[in-house]
Amino acid sequence: MCDVAEISGKVRRRWITIYMAFRYGRWSLRRLLYSSVVFISSFIVLYNFWFVIDLLPWNPRVDHWCQQEKVSDYILQSEFDEMTVVTMFLDLGVFKKGEQRFAYHSPYKYRTWMRVFGRLANRVVAYIENENDVQLFKEIRSCLPPSLTKIVKVDRNSLPSFKHLPAIRKIYSRPSYPKHYPNTVYAEYSCAMHAKYDVLELSAIENHFETPYFAWLDIGLFRNLDGTDFPLFKLVPPDKFHPERIGFSQVWPQDPVLPPEVIMKQKIVWVSGSMVLATQEYMLNFTRDYKLAVKELLEQGLSNSDQEVINAMYTAKMRKPHYIKIKPYLCHQGQLGLYGSDSRYFCLGYVCKNAWERRVPQSPLVKRS
């Protein structure tokens, strides 16, 4: 009995020692579990910051495709319906875009999307603020003839739309004004959206490439092509595009009787601002009407992005008799390879790309021998 009691006591003491070590010691189960949770959480946060938000301090790699391929001569020839593509990049830092937890956009992300312009054979006018981004865009376009690209270094404070910055900040600072990221939170974002029409107007006035058509193109419209082996391409107006219309992608059907206040405060979108297409004359008329509409809405204490402004412009309350008619383009799920919200917001860009591909179906690149 003594041997059994002694063995039992030793086992009990050993168990207590092991239990106390795991519970309170350096490698306790609690500490192991806590360390695992911290490690996994940190990994998830770092992964999202580096690979989802793209918080990277350097420029993305640029594909110098002309080292292996050359351009067929015909794609560089001017078309009868040639369009000048206008774009702009202003570094707004990191900002939240949407309501999801890691729905942030960073400058690196936009610089990555910018690479698609390296295979866009249109005449391009790019308004860029930062010298580093000027050099990046030059490198991206370096495989195309220099005559196809004009880079304008711009100061955001010189753009008319940024004169509205104090008024917009005042509106967004009101606690009662609805908060939609980034539209009604970051005043600089709203100003940048309005500034599209500043540079569109300037480009149409100068008409550097003497083209009949002009198009605004968001840096990220063709983002899905980046990182894929897509051929050189051009954008031309869709078949039967009416020269007295202005083209947009349709996001949702319009309700013209909605009050502008409801549209601006509830972020109700009719057409996408990712691409705007018109002839020189009608682009000038539209940009001037747009800027007057922005002022009119600001006087009423209303602000949002360009998409809401355009919807408000064409309501029964705000629409003027001389406003240019909008031609909306609507893509269905799967059409032109577009799915989800891309089929609504990016439709016109892909319709213009498809119009070129139907006109010239063969690949415009050939391998160098």
TrEMBL record:
Q: Which InterPro entries match?
A: WlaTC/HtrL_glycosyltransf
Q: From which domain of life does this come?
A: Eukaryota
Please report the name of this protein according to its UniProt entry.
Uncharacterized protein
- Regions crossing the membrane: 32-53
Q: List keywords of the entry alphabetically.
A: Membrane, Transmembrane, Transmembrane helix
